[in-house]
Design goal:
Layout: H1 11-33
Keywords: Membrane, Transmembrane, Transmembrane helix
Transmembrane segments: 12-34
């Protein structure tokens, strides 16, 4: 019998997913340590339009 061949994702895909996960974790660590750092980021709140 022939052994089962498994599909493996490409190495670049694994590295990309790992980097994205590490960036998300790093963001939350920065958010916990420096909460004032992200106060100036836009949050998508609706602003009145002045003409």
């Amino acid at each position: 019998m022939e052994p089962n061949k498994r599909n493996k994702p490409a190495t670049l895909i694994i590295i990309a997913v790992a980097v994205i996960a590490m960036l998300i974790i790093f963001y939350f660590i920065l958010l916990a340590i420096f909460p004032d750092l992200f106060q100036t980021l836009p949050t998508g709140e609706v602003q009145p339009v002045t003409n």
